[in-house]
Amino acid sequence: MTPFKIEHLKFTSESISTWAPGDHRNTNWPVVYVLDDATASRPIMRGGRLNDVYVGESRNAVARMRQHLVAPDKRHLSTVRVIVDESFNKSVCLDLESYLIRMLAGDGSYRVLNRNDGITESDYFDRDRYQASFLEVFDQLRRDGVFTRSIPEIENSDLFKLSPFKALTLDQAVAVEGILEGLFEDLGSGATSTTVVQGEPGTGKTVVAIYMLKLLVDIANSVPTEDLDSDSLFSEFFGGEYKQRLSGIRIGLVVPQQSLRNSIKKVFKKTPGLKPDMVMTAFEVGESNEHFDLLIVDESHRLNQRANQPSGVQNKKFQMITEKLFGTDDTTKTQLDWIRAKSTHQILLLDAAQSVRPADLPPEVLSRLVERARAANRNYPLATQMRVRAGADYVGYVRLILGPAAGGVSLPVRPETFEGYDLRMFDSVADMHAEIRRLDAEVGLSRLVAGFAWPWKTKTDKGAYDIEFDDAKLRWNSTQTDWIASPTSLDEVGSIHTVQGYDLNYAGVIIGPDLRYAAAEGRLTVDRAQYFDLKGKENNKVLGKVYTDEDLLRFITNIYAVLLTRGIRGTFIYVCDPALREHLRQFIPRN
């Protein structure tokens, strides 16, 4: 393959006119280009005001540059880099364009001015060979100062993983298209709507939520004279009455988990059209004096019913918001009811099997949600596994061996192996931690996680240890915000509340003494005394609910199923209870 070249020029009419006749490919050949506003006087910045960047592709680079010169959102850009290769075709350019947009968004030194509807993942002839050359393009652009981080650093970052610039899987694209069609229909007719998106761990529910919010903002802010690419996945929505129907629309993204919410806010801060204050808690929605046209709720199963909250202030807020919205302190009202009362349209992303606390919405509420959405043709399932390289079969396997059928005839008769996925059981926590350290040095994002089977001593005594074994002494996560990327995380153990919704390359999971195996009965059981998440097991006095050991077993097995499905490349397991260890050895290969 003939090597590509990157041509540099100033983003001015004079410079483009001088460049135009130099090569026929400047006006009649597929190319990819990068526009930015980095100059010698104001280089790329990590802190302070971000520089802007736009990536595009065109068969006529000169004509496209002249269009950009008169575009209000791009005329301040100063530098053009045109990537030319005599072997490029339209498909290659679309792919390279998408790749560079994704990487620039993940690098974090720029605001990416592109819309996200043009990100593609289409196959074409010899794609693997072309994509190998993309790495060389990246390296050259990094030497030019366009990128400030390496590919592994970018791909392991939250900015990359939670970016709105993602190539959607087929089922994600089908869901987004169906949701948009239904939403625009309802906006036109004045009807209200509730849409449900279901998906197991790793199917990209959060990706869909963020992508859709960015897409709606882009449609609302689109310029009528803007050059529309008919190859764009959702180009049909960038015209006609769609923009008008979104005029003045008030949209919010509700994220129940604190850590994930803060990570998404960082992404929104760097994305044109999106603002950190769009990302809210259910409490913030309930307290707001504004009515929302659309609320997108990620991890809807983590919305709360009325229960004892983590603080007295939140208990008071729950009561006050319910009274404000419904006129009385109706204890049957949940945060889902708040969401419905405060918005005309709702898009709820959920997985009932990821409820991990009694305060979460009860299963019967989630079941009714799904049934009503199906009846209204507003239910969209996600099936393609985006996280775990072992695929959806692995997620199902984990849920099977931790499910109510454990010990029954439906269980596998031998350990399942998943090609390309490293699944192992360890007999030593120290050995597992050493392997996690080795792999973190090699590929990054490798961490220890555990069930809440040890008290949090270090919350008040920083010199203590929380989790102690004969060969290892460990501490719980020292922060609940962005713990995975914190400088001390490799030496600590993350809980469900710091990792739910996140990816790891390798996860070392400690299954604590809270989960046991009763060999005589052939079933999993819980040891209530060994489960130290107080909010994870307390009865609901407000609603008169008492949570049995069977209820607790559901929450704890859900927690371990979530922990065991964090790893992209592999999952390692240490089991505290000897009987459970012997039981699970039937299904998990030994180290």
TrEMBL record:
CDD domains xrefs: GIY-YIG_COG3410
The Schlafen group 3-like DNA/RNA helicase domain, residue ranges: 194-577
Gene3D superfamilies from the UniProt entry: P-loop containing nucleotide triphosphate hydrolases
TM stretches of this protein: none
Protein name: AAA family ATPase
Domain of life: Bacteria
InterPro entries in UniProt: P-loop_NTPase, SLFN_3-like_DNA/RNA_helicase
